[in-house]
Specification:
Helices cover 52% and strands 3% of the residues. With 119 residues, it is mainly alpha-helical. The relative contact order is 0.12.
Length: 119
């Protein structure tokens, strides 16, 4: 995750943003860099004011703004991005722990089956 120190996010302290987001010169707002997206017919998309990218959820919208247009955001929008970033990071950490636990259980399950069949 560029620009944000993981230990700052985990400890709940203020997140320091590095040079990756500071310069507007680094951003390319061309339409060919945007991925294709499909939204449900009844969903009202949130459209990025800088590049016109449609996003279905508020969290995704804030993450997009922070990751793609950080230097253009005001302080409140930057705080919204940091909050969304922390939330996303926490969800990924939980997923990694659960996936690792599943792999460990699978490994020992195969080990027990092998021990029973080899005996």
């Amino acid at each position: 995750m560029t620009g944000v120190a993981d230990d700052d996010v985990d400890s709940g302290t203020d997140v320091e943003v590095g040079n990756d987001f500071d310069s507007d010169d680094e951003f390319e707002d061309s339409d060919d860099s945007l991925p294709e997206t499909e939204l449900p017919a009844d969903a009202e998309p949130l459209t990025c004011p800088y590049c016109g990218f449609d996003l279905p959820e508020e969290t995704q919208y804030r993450l997009h703004l922070g990751l793609e247009h950080y230097g253009r955001l005001d302080e409140a929008e930057q705080e919204g991005f940091k909050e969304s970033y922390r939330s996303e990071n926490d969800a990924l950490d939980r997923f990694r722990i659960i996936a690792l636990g599943g792999l460990v259980l699978l490994y020992f399950g195969f080990l027990v089956v092998y021990a029973l069949l080899a005996a």
